[in-house]
Amino acid sequence: MIRLMRMTSNLTLTRPILAPLAACGLAAGFAVAAPALAQSDKMVSIATPAQGDAIKLGTGELPGATARESWHSQYNSVFARNVTEATLTPFLPDPAKATGTAVIVAPGGGFRTLSMENEGWDVARALAAKGVAAFVLKYRLNQTPPRLADFERSSADMTAPRGPAPRPDLEAMMANLGTQIADARAAFALVRKRSEEWHVDPDRIGMVGFSAGAMLTMATTLAGQDAKPAFIGNIYGPLAPATVPADAPPLFVALAADDPLFGNSGFGLIESWRAARRPVEFHLFEQGGHGFGMYQKPTTSTGWFDEFARWMGMHGLLKPSH
Q1: Contact indicator for 111, 1 with CB cutoff of 8 Å
Q2: Distance, C-alpha 113 to centroid of its chain
Q3: What CATH number did the domain enclosing 202 receive?
Q4: Buried b (16+ CB within 10 A) or exposed e, 293-305
Q5: What is the pTM of this model?
Q6: Does residue 103 form part of some domain?
Q7: How far apart are CA 229 and CA 189, in angstroms?
Q8: What 3-state class would DSSP assign to 4?
């Protein structure tokens, strides 16, 4: 459920953005070192980028919202805040390469911000290059201070040391994600509705999420009713145990052992999938921290996407469905 911004080269955290953690109890006690920020680490307000291809999902305005959507740059990447209306942006492959497989991409950001570039658009472009139709989900977020300086200050306040963090509780976290699950369900419904137009096999629509987006991916799988992803990717999300349905989809997991949030929280989700005799692949990288996404780093975690693509290929998802 929690998303931290990109790690620095020495794997200390710079101005992490934590989720609104009273709901799940994960932030209490997470201690963070905050060295001086490099120029690229600073949050800088930017104009809302053109999103001509974004499709409104029709799940409505965020109830009670007063702050409006805003964007900022950080780590040479782009982030959105205070999203009050969900959208889905298609990244379609060359028709000559199209496989019929599709993926809903859920960026992370602690449900306070969305890493739209590193964990959204860049992932979608890489999938489209493999012949996979990708759809970036800009889901509704919890409200944060409208002024960027106040947002940055509130985020820093959430990182004060409070002792050892408790282990994640998946069911407790999912109980607070009704708004985001509704957005994910609407995304699946839209892709299925327009599957012929987009050359997508409605039975081959998966989902991949990062940190908070990984939490949403698991919630969509376990509590998303009609969404029913055909396959899922959990990239540095919580790995708490879960009650796994008999028809649970194949699961791909990538995590760095030095992830300050989930690297020492156990691998209950992997064990749950195995106990249910459902397909699961788990990559535990020695280094990478939290939030590596599509950033190019000198760690093997940078190879997670290639492994994910190979895994999809192993399941026949990179071959034409018809």
Answers
A1: yes
A2: 11
A3: 3.40.50.1820
A4: bbbebebebbebb
A5: 0.88
A6: yes
A7: 11
A8: coil
Asked, for residue 221, whether it belongs to a domain, the answer is yes
Residue 67 CB burial class (10 angstroms; 0-12, 13-18, ≥19): middle
For residues 287 and 300, is the Cβ–Cβ distance under 8 A?
yes
Structural domain span for residue 189? 56-144+166-314
Question: Domain total for the chain?
Answer: 1
Do residues 236 and 291 touch, judged by C-beta distance below 8 A? Answer: yes
Return phi, psi of residue 254, to 5°: -130, 130
Q: Is 35 inside any structural domain?
A: no
CA distance 71 to 54: 16
Per-residue pLDDT of the chain (322 residues; tens, 9 = 90+): 333 333 322 222 223 334 333 333 333 322 222 233 345 789 999 999 999 999 999 999 999 999 999 999 998 899 999 999 999 999 999 999 999 999 999 999 999 999 999 999 999 999 999 999 999 999 999 999 999 999 999 887 765 556 566 666 778 888 899 999 999 999 999 999 999 999 999 999 999 999 999 999 999 999 999 999 999 999 999 999 999 999 999 999 999 999 999 999 999 999 999 999 999 999 999 999 999 999 999 999 999 999 999 999 999 999 998 7
- Which tokens belong to 247? 């028809």
Q: Is residue 251 part of a domain?
A: yes
Q: Which residue type is seen at 92?
A: L
107 Cβ contact partners less than 8 Å away, ≥ 6 residues apart: 114, 115, 116, 118, 119, 120, 136, 137, 138, 209, 210, 213
